[in-house]
Amino acid sequence: MAFEDKPENGRDAGTAESVAKNRVLLVDDEAEYLQGLRRYLTKKGYNIEIAYDGLEASEKLAAGTFDAVVSDLKMPKIDGMELLRMVRETNQNIAFIVITGYGTAEIEADAKKFGANGYLPKPFAPSVLAQTIQKALAEAVGVAEVVSEPAEQRLEPSADFVRKSLVSTFEKYKEDYTRSIENSDEFWADVAERELVWFKKWDKVFEWTRKEPVWEYKWFDGGQLNACYNCLDRHLDTPKADKIAILWEPDEPGEEARTYTYKQLHAEVCKFTNVLKKHGIKRGDRVCIYLPMIPELAIAMLACARIGAIHSIVFGGFSAESLRGRILDCGAKMLITSDEGRRAGRRIPLKKNADESLKDVDCIENALVVRHTGGDVTMTDGRDHWWHEEMAGVDAACECEHMESEDTLFILYTSGSTGKPKGVVHTTGG
């Protein structure tokens, strides 16, 4: 990746005079990307050293003195978060900036909690990194940076927008909030009846029982519904049926966008539900979804919900090892992935990662593969099946399962940045 040394807003983003040869350690396992940053920052007057993994970085930090560290999160041997913790155990004065291609609010919060002075999700301009380094250096040495606050600007919503709002005034919000505290069961019963379609009404809105060492909570116990029905089927006999449910914009310039109306999405979901059933997936089975941000991700998720299969989505930027751990923890019977993903102009080898993750894994019986980029992949006979081929031979009708409110809808794992990832269970109506 090449970087151009361009001024921003009519001025240079960072001058050699202003950085005074600060010594900075860049840590990333992407060699070309790292060298590009090194060239740019060297021109700006920084004294740059590089490391290609966390272990090499820790050795350089032990051997020398640095003013700042810029480290990617996902690296072999020692990851960026562990490197940050190691640095903060011995030195509070080094400026530390976390960079990542897979940024989330949770990861940013963890980075700041462990003492990061800056956080940058990729892709970013090198000039932005230069500015972040300067700010982090100032913070690390206790120099307060004066930032002028913009004048407050108040934008009033239109009358039509206010009229269509569920909570149209602050007074209405306070009224609803008070009611949710003082008469909680009545408030949430009204919300559930207004917002969702139930096949069977609940027996009790909420109850809790103390079961050591935890508390057991139940919402709308005895009620029956289906999440997929509430997303799609309820709209099929309304004007919304022919309105856009999904408008997908591709990552690749020049690739066509895709749209699905509620009716079209319903048909695709029913077809894929029948694909799941064809391969033996039934209520209560776990299905792991490892896909980029493409429509098939939503289709797979809704199809699982339609028959009561429990889906677990693994972020498409995670490694084979991270995927493997989540598959084994939830005992998934099926994996859904694609040939590759695209992110910021790069191709992510999802199928290759998936193959690596499934070595010596016995619980996965079938893997369905979306042809997304057209990249070459290896298909394992008897296990791997192309999505488009499977979808070609199934019916576009499939009834919904009636799920109990407390039945599991999906399992979502924590990032694992502070320990082993934990699977958080989300119920259907609870």
Descriptive report:
- Helices cover 36% and strands 22% of the residues.
- The chain is of the alpha/beta class and 430 residues long.
- A five-stranded parallel β-sheet has the order 2-1-3-4-5, sandwiched between helices. Strands 12-11-13-16-17 form a five-stranded parallel β-sheet, sandwiched between helices. The protein has a two-stranded antiparallel sheet with strand order 6-7.
- Helix 8 (170-182) packs across helix 9, helix 11 (262-278) packs across helix 12 (295-307) and helix 13 (320-330) packs across helix 14 (350-357).
- The protein is globular, with a radius of gyration of 26 Å.
**Order of adjacent strands in the largest pleated sheet:** 2-1-3-4-5
Which residue ranges are poorly predicted, with pLDDT under 50 across at least 5 consecutive positions? 1-19, 142-150
Helicity, as a percent range = 25-40%
Number of strands: 20
Mean pLDDT: 87
Characterize the largest beta sheet: strand count, sense, and whether it forms a barrel.
5 strands, parallel
Q: Rg, please?
A: 26 Å
Shape annotation: globular
Binned strand content: 15-25%
Number of helices: 15
Structural class by sheet pairing and helices? alpha/beta
Give the termini separation.
47 Å
